[in-house]
Amino acid sequence: MKDIVFCSNNCFVLYSAAVQAKNSENKELVPSLPQSPMKERPPKAFHQYSNNISTLDVHCLPQLQEKVSPPSSPPIMFPPAFEAAKVEAKPDELKVTVKLKPRLKAIHSSLEDCRPPSKKWKGMKWKKWSIQIVIPKGSFKPPCEEEIDEFLKKLGTTLKPDPVPKDYRKCCFCHEEGDGLTDGPARLLNLDLDLWVHLNCALWSTEVYETQAGALINVELALRRGLQMKCMFCHKMGATSGCHRLRCTNIYHFTCAIKAQCMFFKDKTMLCPMHKPKGTHEQELSYFAVFRRVYVQRDEVRQIASIVQRGERDHTFRVGSLIFHAVGQLLPQQMQAFHSSKALFPVGYEASRLYWSMRYANRRCRYLCSIEEKDGFPLFVIKVVEQGHEDLVLTDTTPK
């Protein structure tokens, strides 16, 4: 029998027919050929041998040590353009993830059913929006608030509420107009006809004290004294807050005392910068807001009498929703018929009141109340003024 020699993985193997004496028991002792890590390519031609090689003995020639080549990376399969592809790898190998952004161009493939619905801008490219700001050379003066308001008013793009009328009421102590800050002079309180004082300006005056009901006593006394005292800070009249140190003549307005860094205490005393202790004090008061009910104690009867005595009515007297217009008068011959045990009915009296409407349940209207004379007796007239309706006049001989 002829010898058969073939080559596999650079190893020459000889199959000889002369060694048929050894039986198949020695085959188990012979190590098998190492398997190639690479896949064998299919041969171009297939040969079939009729020899029975099951009884042949195999002898391996000396083999060289193989060089271990690094494992080849798996091939990357690129997915279609409209979806992201992930390449699965073994746990010991590196995982590679490939993400591709979708294009807006049409894709003709067999996966057209999986594509998202086409958009109106199909086939168009993205456009970039660029803004260029040109600043002129030289000095640039930004527009003020008044110019911006005037420009917006010309455009007519905004709705601006009506301006609030300026508050011309002036404090008799500090001479500042309008209500002050809550943590400062605070709100204005009425002292007399067209006379106003800030709450804290009156409260921190030396003569003034507060009752449990919230009434401020001796405010008029402090006002008369303040007309002759000059402030140490602003050098203006009306200062009523003096230093509590004995024989210290420093006196300030309340607002000027804060600016001069005077120290106020919880027992309503004050020390000027020359006599205040250094550092902080446990009884020091640093917050002046007053949220409780506080009013000036005054003689209302004398105040009403001063209104009546004035010939010209330059001021409006209002109590709640009642606005007083004219007090009227009574002649000697009318005294017997124009009064009752509780009230007087002067002819020419006029006042207006805002009260609930007689036509609508949740609306207010204006009622003009006056007293006239008819056949020697008083006639009470009420005129109802309501928007959208004609004026309604109601009369009767009694105020009820």
UniProtKB/TrEMBL annotation:
Write down the EC number. 2.1.1.364
Sorted alphabetically, the keyword list is: Chromatin regulator, Metal-binding, Methyltransferase, Nucleus, Repeat, S-adenosyl-L-methionine, Transcription, Transcription regulation, Transferase, Zinc, Zinc-finger
Origin superkingdom = Eukaryota
Q: Which residues form the PHD-type domain?
A: 168-276
Read off the SMART domains from this record.
FYRN
User: Which InterPro entries does the UniProt record give?
Assistant: EPHD, FYrich_N, Znf_RING/FYVE/PHD
In its UniProt entry, the species of origin is given as Smithornis capensis
Give the record's GO biological process terms: methylation; positive regulation of transcription by RNA polymerase II
Localization per record = Nucleus
Q: Name one GO molecular function term.
A: zinc ion binding
Q: What is its main location?
A: nucleus
Q: Write down what this protein is called.
A: [histone H3]-lysine(4) N-methyltransferase
User: What class does this enzyme belong to in the EC scheme?
Assistant: transferase
Catalytic reaction list: L-lysyl(4)-[histone H3] + S-adenosyl-L-methionine = N(6)-methyl-L-lysyl(4)-[histone H3] + S-adenosyl-L-homocysteine + H(+)
Q: Name one GO cellular component term.
A: MLL3/4 complex
**Annotated signal peptide:** none
Q: Name one Pfam family in it.
A: zf-HC5HC2H_2
Q: What is the lineage of its organism?
A: Eukaryota, Metazoa, Chordata, Craniata, Vertebrata
